Amino acid sequence: MSVPIIGGAAERARRAEEAGWAGITFTDSQNLCPDPFVVFAVVAEGTERIQLATGVTNVHTRHPAALATAAATVQEISGGRFILGTGRGDTALFHLGLPPMPVAEFFERTTRLQTYLSGGTIDIDGRPSRIRWLDTTKGGKVPLDIAASGPKMIEYSAKTAERITFALGADPRRVAWGIDLARSAAADAGRDPADLTFGSYVSIGCHPDLDAARAMVHGSVAAFAHFSSMPGSTGAGLTGDDKDIVAEVGRSYDSNQHLRNDATHTAALTGEFIDRFAVTGTPDRVVERLEELAALGIDRFVVTGPGFGADRDDARIATHLLTTEVLPALAST
Q: Tell me, which fold does domain 9-206+280-331 have in CATH?
């Protein structure tokens, strides 16, 4: 997972493709970074195989019809390699003075989004609304991927989307809880749970020095803990001290310091919590942890590596180890 940067985006994506990465994910936060869909169009023209995904966009700053059209455009340019990842919105709304979308509003707008993506028609005050130009496309339907951490979001996603990417951290017990809940909700809705695919946002600090590994992911661990304590969240799936730590991060979270390792809200994190909520340690340990999650039913990982302010030398070591040792080991299993 990365920020869309205009200069050299296609070249960085080509290097990732050559190194064996399956996909590249760009955030969508209009006050903090360039437009990911424009950058994706450039990247799509310069790559052949790598998948492209938003991680994530939202249906508040982008109207469902406009968002579906942007996604379908990248899908067409890339030859069917695009996945539309969406969520309730965090920094994109914060920098407009808005809270995350209420769950009910997210459901309503995302249902419309999925209808548009599927080529369907929506009645808006008696006027039929559909994206007509999709009739001429060849890239196929854009898969909808919802980032989810709370039970309501997981259950809705299981009934609506093709893909769910959990923002639950890396504790196998909590991830198993999320998968079981999603499969049950899909079955209750008359869907075959096997039609769903599951991913996981994972903060990874890969380094032979455990303290260095922990230090480089403080910012991303705090961010994902914050997602589990957004308005309306109950900390479901968390137990004991972890629930208390997530609640404290939520109370003190400063979105102006989003993903920064030196943010004041990271003070609530303990080393043991980071080791559970993230994946830290040597390449062998990282592979072991990821394989454990894969065995539960996770078939893709959206990796958040060193955060803003990480030690540059440690970050280079982490990136090198991920690419040269962790990635090949996972690909061979």
A: TIM Barrel (3.20.20)
